[in-house]
Design a protein that fits this description.
3 helices; 19-stranded mixed β-sheet; mainly beta; 6% helix; single chain
């Protein structure tokens, strides 16, 4: 077939779906459409070179060995919709953090970290030429970033069992099953200009609203979550690991790290330099609001992780960059909870995320 054919794969016609699996090794057909802009997940295979000496100068053979799914997928942050079929990126929050619940009035979804990420996912992508299924996908890293005048983006580093293509044993999604998920609503973009960001010490609760003295003007932000999942772990067969060519299920293999980077448009005070010197505990909150939709990020306990910078670069305004390490709360900040009409739910870990959109049930 000629490469010039119109049936060649195009990103513009690609479509991704996602669903949680009941077991790490077994894929499942997608139940939601995942909004995305880029993807690079592959069946990362170790290739061994036969280089034994036999009087001939050169490699004798290449042997495909152990393999696992690895790569990334990313897109634009949106307020999820469910008309026709669910559409959005909220599963990335759940996959990266691990625990989800609804508030007492069943209107908001709340996500917080778990010590262990036990849930795996199938991510299916129709690339036109064939469907690619990532089986046993887990989010090892998640980055959410935004800037004034730009789109807010998410990017997830994926590890998993394998990637299968149309025709390979074990694939579950098909072009037809992916096409059958047909959302009819257009989700709105989450933008920094529609957000309020609050930042203060933990001596008192954050005050929200238009007149709040805790509001801080920022130019851009990057929130990063590193789950420290094991990668490249292999073993011979036992009663639970039946194929030695595939990696063991990725599990937590280190300390989770959550960081927040902020860029202030103008260097106008030494609050953050003083806070770094004093070892001050801070708390932060993002509230993105568009109509009745809302996405919030809660950061109950933070310390500035390194000396804030304010470099001079010509005659223009000096920018001020600050990096916060988000810490386990564990009751140190007793003020910050998820807002709710009933009993407030505490945020005992490094962060919490809350959505109020078209969804009527937690993931």
């Amino acid at each position: 077939m000629s490469v010039a054919t119109n049936t060649a794969g195009k990103g513009s016609s690609s479509k991704a779906v996602i669903a949680p699996q009941s077991a790490f090794t077994t894929g499942i057909a997608g139940t939601e459409v995942l909004t995305f802009n880029s993807e690079s997940i592959i069946p990362d295979t170790a290739v061994l070179e036969a280089e034994y000496l036999a009087g001939r100068v050169g490699r004798e053979d290449l042997i495909a060995s152990v393999k696992a799914a690895a790569g990334s997928i990313g897109g634009e942050c949106v307020y999820d919709t469910i008309a026709g079929a669910p559409l959005g990126w909220e599963y990335m929050m759940k996959a990266a953090l691990g625990f989800g619940q609804q508030d007492d009035t069943n209107t908001d979804n709340e996500y917080t970290p778990s010590n262990n990420l036990t849930e795996s996912y199938t991510i299916g992508i129709d690339k036109g030429v064939s469907v690619w299924d990532t089986i046993g996908a887990k989010v090892n890293t998640l980055e959410i970033s935004g800037a004034m005048g730009e789109k807010t983006l998410w990017n997830a580093g994926i590890v998993g069992r394998t990637v299968l293509r149309t025709g390979e044993a074990g694939i579950v999604n098909t072009a037809a099953s992916i096409a059958a998920l047909a959302p009819t609503a257009k989700p709105q973009l989450i933008l920094l200009e529609n957000a309020n960001f609050y930042l203060r010490d933990i001596a008192a609760a954050i005050t929200t609203g238009a007149a709040s003295a805790d509001k801080v003007a920022i130019q851009s932000f990057t929130l990063s979550i590193d789950n420290a999942l094991s990668e490249g772990s292999y073993g011979t067969c036992d009663d639970g690991h039946l194929d030695p060519l595939f990696g063991l299920e990725p599990v937590r293999d280190g300390i989770r790290q959550v960081n927040l980077g902020l860029s202030f448009p103008r260097y106008h005070e030494d609050t953050w330099l003083d806070g770094f010197s004093a070892g001050t505990f801070f708390q932060g909150q993002f509230d993105f609001v568009l109509g009745t939709d809302q996405f919030s990020i809660y950061l109950p306990l933070m310390k500035i992780a390194e000396t804030p910078t304010a470099p001079v670069d010509g005659p223009s305004f000096i920018q001020h960059d600050v990096t916060f390490a988000c810490l386990i709360n564990g009751g140190t900040n007793t003020f910050m909870t998820f807002p709710t009409g009933g009993t407030p739910h505490t945020i005992d870990f490094e962060l919490g995320m809350r959505t109020n959109n078209a969804r009527t049930a937690v993931l």
